[in-house]
Amino acid sequence: MRIRTLLTWLLLFLGATWVIKNNIVQIPDNVQQTFRNGVSRVTTNLNSILDSNWNFNQNKTSTKKDVSDDATPVESIVKNKNLSNKYYYSYQAGTPDAVQNVFKRAIATYNATGIVKIVPGAEQGWLNHLELGTYRKNVPLNQSRTIELGIGGPKIMEQTGVVSRIANHASAKLNIYYNKAVSQAVATHEVGHALGLDHSQAEDSVMYPLDREQTALSPADLAGLKSIYGETK
Ligand SMILES: [Zn+2]
């Protein structure tokens, strides 16, 4: 009698465990789905413009200071270089029209400053050039709560000696894995990097590392550009 009761309880217990286990096995599909949506919503809210320069600069700018009145920082490799303010630009093969359009608007913004002059043209020799295009990169959400929308930066070639010359063969790319990367603000930010601007902690700067849909250059951004390319040449 006792043993039977014990067996009954044991069976009940095992049965309950099996049901619970089964639930645990069955529910996760929904749970994971919900979780995934939740995380991606948070990620979208963070609206990151994160690019490779971001982590790098986070480490670099350990001494925080109020930068709101200062010029937007410039990348160290373009500092005190006698770079021409004239640039040629071309698109990587297969760059979608929508991407070309946002880059065109970004370029118009920089040209309107009179500080740089960016015109269509292939990469050649010691002339400054911007290569514009796209890439696809999915940053796993469990590794980062931010999404990477673009990448851009200068590539300085320099010759010193009897004949000294310098050119910037830069690139700016939008991460078309994410639809929201195809925006004038992201293009303006990445072209800014290509021209030598670094991240700014001022929220009205196009070089603020998170996407604020900022498409107009701030006075500090203009000052940063002038520090690289001088006044109107
Ligand atoms: Zn950036």
From TrEMBL:
Molecular function GO labels: metalloendopeptidase activity; zinc ion binding
Transmembrane segments: none
The Peptidase metallopeptidase domain, residue ranges: 76-231
An annotated GO cellular component: extracellular matrix
Matching Gene3D superfamilies: Collagenase (Catalytic Domain)
GO biological process: proteolysis
Keywords for the protein's UniProt record, in alphabetical order: Hydrolase, Metal-binding, Metalloprotease, Protease, Zinc
InterPro entries: MetalloPept_cat_dom_sf, Pept_M10_metallopeptidase, Peptidase_Metallo
Top-level division of the source organism's lineage: Bacteria
Protein name, as recorded: Predicted Zn-dependent protease
